[in-house]
Amino acid sequence: METHEEFTWRGRRVQWSRRGSGPPVVFCHGTPWSSALWAPFADALSSQYTVHLWDMPGYGRSSKDDAHDVSLAAQGELLADLLRHWGGPPPHLLTHDIGGAVALRALLLHGAPVASLALVDVVALAPWGSPFFRLVGENAEVFQALPAALHEALLRAYVSGAASSELTASELNMLVTPWLGPEGQRAFYRQIAAADQTHTDEIELLYPTVGVPTLVAWGTGDTWIPVDRGHRLASLIPGARLELFEGAGHLVQLDAPVALTASLQRWLDSVSR
Description:
GO molecular function: catalytic activity
Strand content: 15-25%
CATH superfamily: Alpha/Beta hydrolase fold, catalytic domain
Radius of gyration: 17 Å
Protein name: Pimeloyl-ACP methyl ester carboxylesterase
Largest sheet: 8 strands, mixed
Domain AB hydrolase-1: 23-257
CATH topology: Rossmann fold
Number of strands: 8
Order of helices and strands: EEEHEHEHEHHHHHHEHEHH
CATH architecture: 3-Layer(aba) Sandwich
Helix content: 40-55%
Mean pLDDT: 96
C-alpha cells in the first residue's frame, strides 16, 4: 500500500510517499526535476524494497515559499532530519543530479544514517553550473518577471537539452509542469539562483572518507555534467563501482530506463543481502 504524507521542517512542507516492503530505499531527485522522474523506478523496485519518494522544498509538490532557503546546504540538513524522522534501518540512497550533493552532505556533514549510495550523473565535483545558471543568478528577478509564455518556452528548451533522445510530450510535460504558474516560475529561477559551488567544494575533500558502498553511474552522452566527472568521482570514493550508459544523456532515467533499472536492481541486490 502506498502512503502520501507531509513532513514539516522549519516552516517548509515536504511531500513524500512510501510503498512496498523490504529494505528501505530513498530516491533523491535533482534540478530542475522532482520525484516524478524516479517514480517508475520506485514502482519497479517496490516488490522487494520499501521505497520512499520525496520532493525537496522548492520543487515538485513540496512548498515553494519565496522566503525559504533552497540551497544545497539547507537540503542536505533537511534530508538528514527526514531520514531520522522515518527511522528504521539505514536506507539505500538512489540519487541524481544535485540529489547526489544533498545526500553526500547529509552523510558527510550531518551524520545521516545511510546503508549505501548510488550516484547517478550527480553534481559533486567542480566546476559545475552552466552560463545559464550564472546569468539567472545575476538576474533572477528579471527572469521571474518574464511573461508566462516566454518562461514556458525557455523552460521547455532548457529541459529538453538534458536528454540525448527526443522527449515525448508526456515526459516533457511531467518535467515542466511543477515550474508553471506564478509560484512555479518564481521557484524555478530561485532554485537556480541558490546554486552555489561552495556547497560541493566544502565536501569534495571528504569523499575519500565515504564509508558506505557506493555506485557511480553515468550517461556517456551527458552534456550537462560530462562523464569525466563520473570517472573522477569514482576514483575519489574508496571501493566505488563505476557503471556507464553508452549514449545516454543527463536524463539517463528517460534515455536508458531499462538499463538503469537493471543496474539499480543489481546494485541493491548486492548491498542489501
